[in-house]
Amino acid sequence: MASLFCILALSSAATATIVSNVSSAFPFIAADIIVGQPLDGFVSFSIEFSSFPDFAGNVSNPNKFSNNLLNNLGYFTGTKPYIRVGGNTQDYAIYNPNLTIALNGTINATRSPDYPTTIEIGQSFFESYLTWPNVKFSHGFNMGGNHDDRQWATLIQTAEIACKTLGKEKLYWWEYGNEPDLFATSSQGPVRPSNYNESDYVTEWLAATRAIKGVIAEYCPDMLGNDTYGYLAPSFAGVGNHLKAPLTWADGLDADGTVRYFSTHNYISGATSPGVTLQGTLMNHTRTRLSVDAHVSEFAQISPSAPGLVQIMGETNSLYNQGKPGLSNSFGAALWGIDFNLYCASVGIGRVHMHMGTNYRYASWQPITTDLAVVGTKAPYYGNIAVAAFLGNLRIEPVRVAHLDLETSGDNGTETAVGVQDAAYGAYVDNVLTRIMVINMRAYNYTLNGTGDLCTPNPTPRVARTYNFGVDGFEDGREAVVRRLYANGSDAITGITWDGISYNYELDLGKPVRLRNVTTGEKVTVKNGVVEVAVPDSQAVVLDFGDGYREL
Predict the structure, then answer these.
(1) 198 a catalytic residue
(2) pTM given for the model
(3) What ranges in 271-359 are assigned the alpha helix state H?
(4) Which of 110, 230, 254, 394 has the CB geometry, 3.0–4.6 Å to 259, for a possible disulfide?
(5) Which residues have C-beta within 8 Å of that of residue 196, sequence separation ≥ 6?
(6) Active site residue: 175, 298, 315, 415, which one?
(7) pLDDT of residue 455
(8) Out of 179, 198, 298, 415, which one is annotated catalytic?
């Protein structure tokens, strides 16, 4: 059979200049610019409890592909991602000591077609914690119970196995319960009465975490120090549900002083929500800001009474219910992920755990081949890589991230989407500007009407926007290396590269492979205190002024 090849050429047309003033030295940033300092391992993941054996494998058959992808991120940031093992299915998991396999799950499509809602786990489930070197994990204990009278026995039994398996070297923190603010209202079936309130939750949470501590004291006493014992909490689904986080704090959630990170969850919208589109919902900086700002405002009600406590996104991704095909698995979602993560960093959210599971549309990678999906690196992973590269090695060069305002110059008001369909961020090392990230989120379909037919390319030219950054204080002639996150368009799900590198499964099991047909090494020069770069629609670019970037 003859093969048909269709070549898509990048065509571009110039438009108005988009400008931003970004100081080359941190102390002189305008007072209204908020700057956040991300924690090590800022780019991290949350893995669905029932999918964890697929992602990690076991001792005899570790998932090397997953580990390679984690290594890639650790290469840039100096720390491999922290892994939260949890999600809805942690509250369905019942321990069966006689089960000879890791997990036995039954899918009830009326509750969820994407994961089992009746689950038993055996001792071999915990082998998956031993397959990825130099990774720390949080283990999610079952609080919801799923109306199973073995819930408390499961808690006590799994606390012993988990502490013995993880030990001090592999433990991130513990977590008790996933999204308990939905326990009384869940569409998958309530597991608490309708009058369940914040005080009830706190009483229950304290009783169980104290029981966990008792088990650890008996079997793993060396894990009771302040640096090895504590929780991600309250792990609420959002800011407007049945339970409110500030009230749980007022009711004494941290009475024992064991909450190490204030963990909250966020999804921009839902996979089946009316009106969800790639441009309007995800590639929309205004919507992202509003969504994240609601969490920042909530935490501001708690932080005065919790000095030193840091907020994290313990679970997040694009569209709840595991994402929507054509949106959550697209290059546009990768661009959204960069904007979401870096905006979180800029407003003081210390770490972001992107959620994923087997066959999930928004996952950064598919860990194994199933009857629904083929193993492989997915578009959102490239967004993870771009964020990691922009932040750099947080262990040796902690950065501060500033959100940069954009405005137009010389377009007579015709460029109306500035600051809505694009975003920019500055990274400062030792208070000196080191990198700028520009994200042009104007959607460009690389095939006609986004049909995906490679032989019917989009005849509309792909516009390149000119971004102009005032970097007063940098000498004329100073160079910045340009590193691009590239795909043929926002609707692409394959053919993506970061700075000319592919992390595809097919090339070298997810390890970085430099492609010879992608141009790299581009540079721009400071002139009259300004640096300028062209960014085509549906592309992200990093301008790197520093010396610490690690070349492959």
Answers:
(1) yes
(2) 0.94
(3) 285-300, 331-346
(4) 254
(5) 183, 184, 242, 243
(6) 315
(7) 72
(8) 198
